[in-house]
């Protein structure tokens, strides 16, 4: 009796929709997904009451984070939709000027694209 065992258990279904490395993040304003480097990371300053949303000031911070495109429009949209409250699951305050300034810094004044949309 000759038994021919030929079972190759090679099932590899590595389907990666996004090329590149790193986790994907989603914008609170427009819902766009992309690499983390394309977004501004926001964290919660719990020293204030209610907690205050502030742009991440360098370095790794633990805790929940939220992300925004580097666009003022997305900031306004997120504010309008109260997306920050949902993202942090808390009643939070947002210093719009502070976040807007952080976006402007990240974008860079040199290559300021005039993409004003409504
Ligand atoms: Zn966006």
How would you describe the overall organization of this protein?
With 118 residues, the protein is of the alpha+beta class. It has a single domain (24-107), classed as Hypothetical Cytosolic Protein, Chain: A (2-Layer Sandwich), CATH 3.30.1230. It is built from three helices and six strands, in the order βββββααβα. The strands form two sheets. A four-stranded mixed sheet has the order 5-3-4-6. Strands 1-2 form a two-stranded antiparallel ribbon. A hairpin with a 6-residue loop joins strand 1 and strand 2 (33-35). Helix 1 packs antiparallel against helix 3 (96-107). Bound molecules: zinc ion. Zinc ion (ZN) binds at residues 27, 29-30, 32, 69, 71, 74.
CATH architectural label: 2-Layer Sandwich
Which molecules are bound in this entry?
zinc ion
Return the average pLDDT rounded to an integer: 81
Considering the protein shown, what is the CATH homologous superfamily?
Answer: YlxR-like
Helix content: 10-25%
Please give the count of helices: 3
**Which of globular, elongated, flat, extended, rod-shaped describes the shape?**
elongated
CATH topology: Hypothetical Cytosolic Protein, Chain: A
Write out the strand line-up for the largest beta sheet, numbering strands in chain order.
5-3-4-6
Instruction: Using the coordinates above, name the CATH class.
Output: Alpha Beta
Estimate the strand proportion.
Answer: 15-25%
Radius of gyration: 21 Å
Write the H/E string, N to C. EEEEEHHEH
According to DSSP, the number of beta strands is: 6
Low-confidence stretches: none
Structural class: alpha+beta
Instruction: Quickly count the domains.
Output: 1
What is the chains' assembly state?
Answer: single chain
Largest sheet: 4 strands, mixed
